[in-house]
């Protein structure tokens, strides 16, 4: 219960700092539904069960460039395996902002590929009133007519990656794989694109 209380406290603090629920979801690596539950129950002494979710804290990796580098090398290795199996290639690594970017940049370096940055709608301030859309940053590579892979840190519901696949497809990319550090959804593909992960988390009940 202490861990849940800590999550509630952290969610409340992030909300007070001005983050929208999508950003809080990204920071805590939980679903949007879980963030809503954490915020609405933070002020209550409620015994109602929370959403079926798993909070992931990979900050022990994220705070060390040395560890990130080795994790990225492991992800690059599993990407090579997937690309070889599908006889695919990669011109651009698309990193999902915010937490997927450090891994994506290192994977792009390992693959000698260009780097693109996709900011999903959940990161937008206007997201909560449904006006925001995700976009590619113009400061990085474009994806038109290029073979791409998407790199992110954690798959929760898969909604962000579905959104990214749709956006990239609309902008002329050929998406050959999605690579993530941790897959909480336990899926083999998202929007028809194969998913590979270093860790897969699956509920048994």
UniProtKB/TrEMBL annotation:
<keyword id="KW-0804">Transcription</keyword>
<dbReference type="InterPro" id="IPR029057">
    <property type="entry name" value="PRTase-like"/>
</dbReference>
<protein>
    <recommendedName>
        <fullName>Transcriptional regulator GfcR</fullName>
    </recommendedName>
</protein>
<keyword id="KW-0808">Transferase</keyword>
<dbReference type="GO" id="GO:0010468">
    <property type="term" value="P:regulation of gene expression"/>
</dbReference>
<dbReference type="GO" id="GO:0019856">
    <property type="term" value="P:pyrimidine nucleobase biosynthetic process"/>
</dbReference>
<keyword id="KW-0805">Transcription regulation</keyword>
<feature type="domain" description="Phosphoribosyltransferase">
    <location>
        <begin position="73"/>
        <end position="188"/>
    </location>
</feature>
<dbReference type="GO" id="GO:0006222">
    <property type="term" value="P:UMP biosynthetic process"/>
</dbReference>
<dbReference type="GO" id="GO:0003677">
    <property type="term" value="F:DNA binding"/>
</dbReference>
<dbReference type="InterPro" id="IPR022854">
    <property type="entry name" value="GfcR-like"/>
</dbReference>
<dbReference type="Pfam" id="PF00156">
    <property type="entry name" value="Pribosyltran"/>
</dbReference>
<keyword id="KW-0238">DNA-binding</keyword>
<keyword id="KW-0328">Glycosyltransferase</keyword>
<dbReference type="GO" id="GO:0004588">
    <property type="term" value="F:orotate phosphoribosyltransferase activity"/>
</dbReference>
<dbReference type="InterPro" id="IPR000836">
    <property type="entry name" value="PRTase_dom"/>
</dbReference>
<comment type="similarity">
    <text>Belongs to the purine/pyrimidine phosphoribosyltransferase family. GfcR subfamily.</text>
</comment>
């Amino acid at each position: 219960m202490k861990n849940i209380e800590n999550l509630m406290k952290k969610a409340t603090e992030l909300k007070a700092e001005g983050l929208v629920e999508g950003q809080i979801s990204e920071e805590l690596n939980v679903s949007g539904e879980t963030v809503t539950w954490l915020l609405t129950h933070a002020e209550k002494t409620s015994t109602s069960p929370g959403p079926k979710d798993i909070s992931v804290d990979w900050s022990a990796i994220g705070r060390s460039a040395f560890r990130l580098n080795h994790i990225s090398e492991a992800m690059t290795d599993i990407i090579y395996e997937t690309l070889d199996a599908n006889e695919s290639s990669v011109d651009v690594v698309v990193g999902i902002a915010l937490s997927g970017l450090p891994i994506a940049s290192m994977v792009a370096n390992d693959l000698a590929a260009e780097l693109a940055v996709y900011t999903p709608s959940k990161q937008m301030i206007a997201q909560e009133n449904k006006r925001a859309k995700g976009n590619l940053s113009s400061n990085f590579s474009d994806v038109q007519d290029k073979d791409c892979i998407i790199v992110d840190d954690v798959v929760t519901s898969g909604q962000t990656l579905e959104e990214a696949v749709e956006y990239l497809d609309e902008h002329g990319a050929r998406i050959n794989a999605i690579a993530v550090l941790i897959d909480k959804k336990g899926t083999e593909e998202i929007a028809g694109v194969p998913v590979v992960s270093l860790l897969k988390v699956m509920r048994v009940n």
